[in-house]
């Protein structure tokens, strides 16, 4: 499972397997097809890395957590049920790995429902990043405007970061996000609206940010 750092991690998300293809590859993996698992990892690691980096901030930690999530998938392959879509199952494993990582380092705390902004659905736990600067900025890759964006982005809750990452980094459709998070499309639209608003507000607080 060990991969050397490469463009599949550091660059933009690459085209990944669709829901049906990912599920087919996982079922083949469960049946003992090692090549199917290699193809599954190859097709999804870019998406997984960008989601993990959105949640934990650090590029190196995101790489490790991406590999950890795939390792957990392989170890749990026998528990994957035929008829269950793979991508939501995988996303839960990746998300849990990221939240466990952050909790172990004291960088997340669960928020009570009463703390949530008006209009935010209450059907799942939310988390906020206790440390606003979760990882070092890669200035060489970004530039000044991108640096401002990442400062604001890392100040958002993990919940906001997750859905913005799925939509704008991975460029998933609303339906795909809904399937990945196991929530209705209407909830996706609501979460994105509020997450974008909060991101804009954070950008406006930064000297030199957009007004």
Layout of strands and helices, then pairs:
Layout (H helix, E strand, L loop, with lengths): L6 H4 L8 H12 L3 H23 L2 H17 L10 H19 L3 E3 L16 E3 L9 H4 L1 H10 L4 H12 L4 H8 L3 H21 L6
Antiparallel strand pairs: 1-2
Multimeric organization? single chain
**Count of the separate structural domains:** 1
Q: List the strand order in the largest sheet.
A: 1-2
The CATH class name reads Mainly Alpha
User: Which outline best applies?
Assistant: globular
Low-confidence stretches: 1-7, 9-15, 110-142
Q: Please outline the major beta sheet.
A: 2 strands, antiparallel
Distance between the termini: 45 Å
SSE string, helix = H, strand = E?
A: HHHHHEEHHHHH
Number of helical segments with 4 or more residues:
10
Q: Radius of gyration, Cα only, in angstroms?
A: 17 Å
CATH architecture descriptor: Orthogonal Bundle
What is the count of β-strands?
2
Tell me about this structure.
It is a single chain. The chain has 211 residues and is an all-alpha fold. The protein has a single domain, classed as Orthogonal Bundle (Rna Polymerase Sigma Factor, Chain: A). It contains ten helices and two strands. Helix 3 crosses helix 8 and helix 8 (158-169) crosses helix 10 (185-205). The longest helix has 23 residues, at 34-56.
Main attributes?
211 residues; mainly alpha; Rna Polymerase Sigma Factor, Chain: A; two-stranded antiparallel sheet
């Amino acid at each position: 499972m060990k991969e050397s750092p490469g463009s599949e991690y550091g660059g933009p998300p690459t085209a990944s397997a669709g829901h049906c293809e990912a599920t087919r590859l996982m079922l083949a993996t469960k049946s003992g097809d090692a090549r199917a698992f290699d193809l599954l990892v190859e097709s999804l690691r870019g998406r997984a890395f960008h989601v993990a980096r959105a949640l934990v901030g650090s590029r190196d930690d995101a790489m490790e957590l991406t590999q950890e999530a795939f390792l957990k998938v392989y170890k749990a392959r026998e528990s994957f049920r035929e008829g269950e879509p793979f991508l939501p199952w995988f996303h839960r494993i990746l998300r849990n790995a990221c939240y466990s990582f952050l909790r172990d380092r004291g960088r997340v705390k669960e928020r009570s429902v009463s703390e949530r902004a008006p209009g935010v659905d209450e059907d799942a736990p939310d988390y906020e990043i206790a440390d606003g600067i979760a990882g070092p900025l890669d200035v060489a890759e970004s530039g000044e405007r991108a640096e401002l964006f990442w400062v604001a982005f890392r100040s958002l809750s993990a919940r906001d970061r997750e859905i913005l990452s799925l939509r704008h980094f991975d460029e998933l459709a609303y339906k795909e996000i809904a399937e990945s998070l196991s929530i209705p499309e209407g909830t996706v639209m609501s979460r994105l609206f509020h997450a974008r608003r909060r991101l804009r507000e954070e950008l406006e607080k930064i000297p030199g940010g957009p007004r």
